[in-house]
Amino acid sequence: MNFITWMIVACEIGFWIVILLGLITRYILKYERLGLFFLALTPVIDLILLIVTATDLYNGATATQVHAIAAIYLGVSIAFGKSMIHWADERFIYYIQKQGPKPIRKTGYAYARHSMKGSLQHVLAYIIGAAFLVAMIYFINAPAKTEVFLETLKIWALVLGIDFVFSISYFIWPRPEKA
């Protein structure tokens, strides 16, 4: 694996580590501000990945699928970051702190709405990731070196379309309640 691949893996691990540190600091150690500080570090991790990827390309690396995945990671992290932190926070309070209501499994139209919200977040992730990819295409200014970015955008658009089909299907065939 190349350096950018390892950076993506390190950033994903770092993302969950700072969330866990934030939750432990906030709820177990009772340091609200320090916990909030750790949770606020998640965008810094994204910034590090952006800088490393841009530097690699600026130094003459040929754009690869890994560089494109870095842009996807950034888009997804920015678009879904807040909801992922909320998800972790809700479960940490219930399962670790043994407080608050049990997180409920959404069913029916509540799940359909939740799924559609996720699809709309996916659109936002696509817009952000595509902006990074288009910016890299523009700044590199060598179509032969950045062809992989256009292919990635096409595949990602297809995945986005499939995501919407699934979300719409939940309105037609709502998710049943578990017995």
Structure summary:
This protein has six helices and no strands.
Which assembly state applies to the chains in this document? single chain
Structural class: mainly alpha
Radius of gyration: 19 Å
Poorly predicted tracts of residues: none
Total of DSSP H or I helical runs spanning 4+ residues: 6
Strand fraction equals under 5%
- Distance between termini? 45 Å
The largest sheet is: none
Q: Calculate the mean pLDDT score and round it.
A: 91
H/E order of the elements? HHHHHH
Q: How much helicity do the residues have?
A: over 70%
Shape: flat
Could you tell me the number of beta strands?
0
Task: Describe this structure as you would to a colleague.
- By secondary structure, the protein is mainly alpha-helical.
- The chain is about 80% helix and about 0% strand.
- Helix 1 (about 5-30) runs antiparallel to helix 2 and helix 3 (about 40-60) runs antiparallel to helix 4.
What descriptive keywords fit this protein?
179 residues, mainly alpha, 0% strand, 82% helix
